[in-house]
Amino acid sequence: MPWITKRIIDLPTSLFIRILHGGKTNMEKKENSQYLPLNQLGEEDYFLFKGLEPGTIILRLLEPFTKEVCSWIGENSISAFVSREERFHLLSILGEDIVKLKRKTYTTRQEKAAAKFNKEKDLVMECNEV
After folding, report:
1. Where is the RNA cytosine-C(5)-methyltransferase NSUN2-like PUA domain (predicted)?
2. Pick from 39, 54, 65: which is nearest to 7 by CA?
3. Whole-number Å distance between alpha carbons of 33 and 26
4. Percentage of the chain surpassing pLDDT 90?
5. Sign, Cα dihedral of 67, 34, 52, 47
6. Do residues 77 and 37 lie in contact, with contact meaning Cβ atoms separated by under 8 Å?
7. Residue ranges of the domains in the chain?
8. Which residues contact 125 (CB under 8 A, 6 or more apart)?
9. Is the N or the C terminus of the chain less surrounded, counting Cβ atoms within 10 Å?
């Protein structure tokens, strides 16, 4: 990305992985989000983002391979702009176990599909009663 010269942050692998995983949005329900709250970073990691205004940044991983990811940093959180599939791919290449992430994705999709099916079924039954 030769045209971008500012707001490029070189990250250690461990922090890159944490940002890809996202953070906990609701500790009681153990819900995950693509946004990693900055207050969940350690002091050393937080220092990398200190003083940056909210907006687009480039996160650059240098080891074990070079990868740049467009990201958003807000006042309180950071998020990588990658698709779910790319997120899974990057995490698996970096040695992370993504089975739980994939399972949660499919479970959520199945729940939504079941809810939609039940709603349609209820509508059909209501129409038949009339």
Report:
1. 7-94
2. 54
3. 9
4. 0
5. negative
6. yes
7. 1-96, 98-130
8. none
9. C
